Amino acid sequence: YQRRVHGEMNTDQVSEEVMIQEAENATEEDDQYRYARYHFGPDFFKTKTIGTSLTFSVGSQPIKDLRMIERHYFKDRLLASYDFTFPFCIPNTCNSWENIYSVPELQEDIKQEMINSPWETEADTFFFVGNKLIIHLKSQYNYSESEDDE
Predict the structure, then answer these.
(1) What is the pTM of this model?
(2) Quick one: DSSP state of residue 22?
(3) Backbone angles phi, psi at 110, to 5 degrees
(4) Tens digits of residue pLDDT in 71-122
(5) Residue 94 contacts by C-beta under 8 Å, 6 or more apart in sequence?
(6) How is 78-142 classified by DSSP, letter by letter?
C-alpha cells in the first residue's frame, strides 16, 4: 500500500494525497495499523461523489480477491460502509485501484456538528486477501475551515 488520493469525481480537483511507504524490515505488528489524517474543509459537504485511487505493489505471489471494507463514523454513529473487491493481482506488479464513493446524505445539524468537531469523524479501512486481514488503516477527518483545529 503506497498511495491514496481523494478527489471530487465531477472535477479534476484533488482534495488530499497521502503517501505511505513500506518499511523494508516492518514486522506484522508494524503493519497492523496505519494512520492518516485528511482535512477537507466545510465545502466537502457540497460533494456528491468522491473517488479514491490506491497504488500498491504485489510481491512474488499472485493475490486473489483483494478486498477493501471501509466504515466511516462520526463519534459513535456509522455514516457509511463500503465494500470493494479487486479480483486478481499479478505478481511483481504495481497496481492502481480506483473506487468511487457516493457521499451519504446528512442532515444539516449533523454536518454542522462535524464541522465543529474536527478530527472526530473517523474511518476504519480493512484490506483482506481471502479471509486474512493484511492491513488496517485508521483515518481521521477534519471538515472545519482550519487544518490545525484540535
Answers:
(1) 0.76
(2) P
(3) -70, -45
(4) 999 998 999 999 999 899 999 999 888 888 888 999 999 999 999 999 999 9
(5) 2, 55, 56, 57, 58
(6) EEEEEEEEEEEE-TT-EEEEEEEEEPPP--HHHHHHHHHSTT-EEEEEEEEETTEEEEEEEEEEE
